[in-house]
Specification:
By secondary structure, the chain is mainly α. It has 23 helices and no strands. The termini are far apart.
Length: about 450
């Protein structure tokens, strides 16, 4: 492409003309119409070299020196603009996203400064994290710019954008999409040995811990365990927040595998770290998990001590879903001790705080349903069915499987039609999950021996 018909040249010509104080009309002459001048400055239509040379003469610019001047301009202006963008990013992260966004809108980034264009859209997306749709649009614009200029992959802005897109999906409770974006981010991350620089090196660990969080919540424990195993080998490279998240996720996995002593060993040193660093959201998680671990071991006294410690952190915690989860776990503990009334109150209190976190909300609904199974099974069924609908909405098949089994167990003595329906649904989802576990080696559905008594309504 002719250098004078590029976006960077067009912007340069416009700025040089403005410096002279001339209007487009002042430059126009026979053979160089106002529309042609406009095309030169906006790159709308290809303009011949002869006309551009004449345009340059009119504004006192040496046409042959333009390529060199363009390069000099970039070398001079780009570092200063990058510092301004970094300053705005600090305002967004540490002070006021709305103010940072206003500052961004006042900043003009030349169209040929491709790295800064991508950086601009990335920061703009960060300023909109409370409005995920607008944030996503900005991140995709940044990614598009980087794909058009592959040399920008060295900046790891593309990986950073995919990390933020994963967070946006997570905040919308779309865990499958969140994991997909995270994998794209890891695939696009450029390590130091690949390009001689290590820009945004922290993004790799952010993506890795997100892979663990999203995978575990989706029931993909193999992915979560393997990723954590690799992360522990490099734990010294991780910042405090990442290390605390690693401890949280590792302890959850140990508990699921009934390796309770290992869960406790993992949690205790990181409780001290979280306390010293005043990381209250991680601290409440760690105390809550520790309490749950002791409950699973049958040590209810220690469990209550831990969960009460977590409860006391409520005022310092930013993410109220963590507090909600603590109340749910405390309610489950009271239920295990036979104090059903107090258990229900605590779980209901927790549910109100967990509404934005689908996984915790489902867990709360199922916990409350357990409290009703014996005395009011119909109420328990209703709660389980609410939870089931949410699992279907968000394609949470592992949770769906567990709820279908509980529904089959509760409905068996009181409603054979529903029992048969949920038992068959449980069987089908179990086969599907087993196929996924075995790498899609298909199992065939067999006909289940469904129960049917004389006098019962026909099966649906």
């Amino acid at each position: 492409m002719d250098f004078w018909n590029t976006a960077e040249a067009a912007e340069f010509f416009r700025k040089m003309r403005l410096k002279t104080g001339l209007r487009q009309e002042d430059i126009a002459e026979p053979g160089l119409a106002v529309s042609t001048v406009s095309n030169i400055e906006n790159k709308k239509i290809h303009v011949s070299e002869k006309k551009v040379r004449r345009y340059c003469e009119k504004i006192g610019l040496d046409f042959d020196q333009v390529p060199k001047l363009l390069e000099q301009r970039k070398v001079k202006e780009e570092p200063a603009l990058k510092i301004r963008l970094k300053a705005i990013e600090t305002v967004i992260d540490c002070h006021d996203p709305k103010l940072g966004r206003k500052m961004l809108k006042k900043l003009e980034i030349p169209p040929d400064f491709y790295e800064l264009q991508a950086y601009y859209h990335y920061i703009f997306g960060r300023s909109h994290l409370q409005n995920q749709r607008k944030a996503e649009k900005a991140f995709f614009r940044a990614i598009e710019t980087i794909k058009e200029h592959p040399e920008l992959k060295r900046t790891n802005l593309q990986a950073a954008c995919y990390y933020e897109l994963g967070r946006c999906a997570f905040l919308q409770n779309d865990l499958n999409q969140a994991l997909t974006y995270t994998e794209l981010g890891l695939n696009s991350f450029m390590k130091k040995k690949q390009h001689g620089n290590n820009e945004r090196a922290d993004i790799e660990f952010n993506l890795l811990i997100c892979r663990v969080i999203y995978a575990r919540r989706l029931g993909k424990d193999g992915i979560a365990k393997q990723t954590l195993q690799n992360m522990w080998k490099r734990v010294s490279e991780a910042n405090t927040e990442i290390q605390l998240n690693m401890a949280v996720e590792q302890a959850q996995i140990y508990n699921k595998e009934q390796m309770y002593e290992l869960a406790i060993e993992t949690i205790l040193p990181f409780i001290d770290l979280a306390r010293k660093e005043r990381k209250y959201d991680r601290l409440i998680e760690l105390w809550s998990i520790l309490g749950t671990t002791y409950k699973k071991m049958g040590d209810f006294e220690q469990a209550k001590c831990c969960l009460k410690a977590a409860e006391k952190l409520e005022k310092n915690v930013q993410n109220k879903a963590f507090t909600g989860h603590t109340y749910i776990e405390l309610g489950r503990l009271y239920f295990a001790e036979g104090e059903t009334v107090q258990a229900k109150k605590l779980i209901q209190k927790g549910l109100k705080l967990c509404k934005k976190d689908v996984i915790k909300y489902i867990y709360g609904l199922c916990s409350l349903a357990e409290c009703y199974e014996q005395e009011k099974p119909k109420e328990a069924i209703s709660l389980y069915e609410q939870a089931l609908e949410i699992t279907k909405q968000y394609q949470l098949e592992q949770q769906q499987q567990k709820i279908l089994l509980r529904l089959a167990m509760v409905t068996e003595p009181i409603n054979v039609v529903k029992y048969n329906h949920y038992l068959e649904a449980y069987y089908k989802i179990s086969v599907k999950l087993e196929n996924q576990r075995k790498g899609e080696q298909q199992l065939k559905y067999n006909v289940l021996p469904l129960r049917h008594k004389s006098g019962d309504p026909p099966l649906p």
